[in-house]
Write a structure and sequence with these properties.
This protein is of the alpha/beta class and 237 residues long. The protein has one domain: Spore Coat Polysaccharide Biosynthesis Protein SpsA, Chain A, CATH 3.90.550.10. The protein is 36% helix and 26% strand. The strands form three sheets. Strands 1, 4, 5, 6, 8, 9, 10, 11 and 12 form a nine-stranded mixed sheet that branches. The chain has a two-stranded antiparallel ribbon with strand order 2-3. A two-stranded antiparallel sheet has the order 7-13.
């Protein structure tokens, strides 16, 4: 499977709080976040790994260029206006039937990820399997509306999601098949921006998306999140 990592964000809130290390190189239990993701992807069937970093992240670019992997590593150095644009910049490398995309600061336990990837591979009839979690720890969560069978019916902002009684929010891990990448091209042509609007377009175009629940997924947005993430990962050992 092709794997992709969006590591192009500026991490401005971390910088404001005194964290000088570029977000992808922040260490969790002694390991840079980007290295941890790559290690997990290699352990779970990666045939290629593609990463986008922004043009200002020279330290991250050098770090990536120094890596030697047993599969192709495709590095894109480009500053983009949104995560959806970053995903599109990676899409030429995602040539297989399926891919898995994450953002670099998405923190999850390997055991949960392994069962997620296994479930995705066992569901060839769906166009995407989206990680969701009932654990809400995001400033602007994207709520995921599902039916009784776990199929996704909508992606809602906080107010709508809470009003609709949605149980889950998006976890920032996306298992996608070729039809979803075709929609990505159309989204770019139509001037759509942001991953959440791309996901809404997947629903509006009738793609079959299934939600897959993780107990907990964390993001690293603030300095305090680093210790939270390390504690979370330590609990799983």
């Amino acid at each position: 499977m092709d794997y992709a990592i969006i590591a192009a964000g500026e991490g401005s809130r971390l910088v404001q709080e005194g964290v000088t290390t570029p977000k992808p190189l922040i260490r969790l239990l002694g390991e840079p976040m980007i290295d941890r993701l790559i290690r997990l992807f290699l352990r779970h069937g990666a045939s290629s790994i593609s990463v986008i970093v922004n043009e200002e992240m020279t330290d991250v670019r050098r770090h990536m260029e120094a890596l030697r992997l047993p599969v192709p590593l495709n590095l894109v150095v480009q500053s983009t206006p949104s995560s959806m644009h970053s995903f599109h910049a990676l899409s030429p490398f995602l040539t297989g039937d399926a891919c898995c995309l994450t953002t670099v600061d998405t923190v999850f336990r390997e055991e949960a990820f392994a069962t997620y990837i296994d479930a995705f591979e066992r569901m060839p009839a769906v166009d995407g399997v989206m990680a969701v979690t009932a654990f809400v720890d995001d400033e602007k969560p994207l709520y995921v509306e599902t039916d009784a069978a776990g199929m996704i019916r909508g992606f809602l902002d906080r107010e709508e999601g809470e009003a609709a009684g949605c149980q889950y929010v998006s976890g920032g891990i996306y298992g996608l098949r070729r039809a979803a990448l075709d929609v990505l091209d159309r989204a770019m042509e139509q001037g759509i921006s942001r991953m959440r609007n791309y996901q809404r377009m997947l629903v509006s175009e009738g793609l079959r998306l299934r939600a897959y629940a993780f107990d907990k997924i964390l993001d690293i947005d603030h300095a305090a999140d680093i210790a939270k993430a390390e504690a979370f990962l330590s609990e799983g050992k």
